[in-house]
Amino acid sequence: MQLLRVENLVAGYNSGPIIKEVSFELAAGEFLAVCGPNGSGKSTLLKAIQRLLPSIQGKITLENRDLFRLKAGEIAARIAYVPQVFEPVFDFSVEETVAMARYHLQSSRFSQASSRDRELVAEAMKLTGVEPLKDKGLNELSGGERQRVLIARALAQDTPLLLLDEPSSHLDLNFQLQIYNLLKRLQREKGKAVLVAEHNLNLVIPYCSSLIFLKDGQIAASGEPSALLTEDLIREIFGVEVELRENRSTGLPEISLNHTEKENPNFGGQEEKRRNSE
């Protein structure tokens, strides 16, 4: 069943569009990764799908309904979002932060959490390993711990679609694998659709069923990882020389950097152009 359809999306900020004519579909239970260099529009795309940008054109359909006709609570019931950067303004506890995921279902700010709400919050904290931290304030946590709290909050929201912007950020190798294993399990066992923006190709390749490469705000390539990835494509997208080999445990392509010293003409000058694009 089709869950999300994006058609001819143009989106950005007051300074101008970042995403240009992007179209794709995401089915229920599919795991899609959006990859690309810094400034390619990955974060902008995820924000546009939630109607979080000042300038959006095109069509976005969510469960066969026009996203732009949905109320904020209706979007929150369908999409859970994990941002790339999160700096807490108020020092809520971990448990309070995760419980915020259930607020959109309560009739008023004074409503009490239901037994189902409490069950989902407890389960999400357990799955992400933050249960022992539940009474700690967010300002007491490391960046990696905060990231896991945000993922727990998204899981507690219990939506058919999970959007995650660089979910491996701030996490050590152990938790990177644990989080991606958890996302894959949610996809397989609960039929969740997962859409991640990710810079770590070797991390995401074994988990996603489809890849989209963005470059300069447009889709440069898309398809299944095993058929899509080539050394020429990586060179075209990222401007870097790599070697592809078969991962012995998954049989999927794995990327090795070619460390031969060579000046990259895109390094430095492009950063000024890309600095504010995401």
What name is given to the CATH topology of the largest domain?
Rossmann fold
Order of helices and strands: EEEHEEHEHHHEHEHEEHHEEH
How many helical elements?
A: 10
Strand arrangement, largest sheet? 6-7-8-3-9-10
β-sheet strand percentage: 25-35%
CATH first level of the largest domain: which class? Alpha Beta
Number of domains: 2
CATH architecture name of the largest domain: 3-Layer(aba) Sandwich
Radius of gyration: 19 Å
The overall pLDDT average reads: 87
First-to-last CA distance: 31 Å
**Molecular shape:** globular
Descriptive account of the structure:
A six-stranded mixed β-sheet has the order 6-7-8-3-9-10, sandwiched between helices. Helix content is 31%, strand content 27%. It has ten helices and twelve strands. The protein has two domains: 1-78 and 159-230, P-loop containing nucleotide triphosphate hydrolases (Rossmann fold), CATH 3.40.50.300; 91-158, no CATH class.
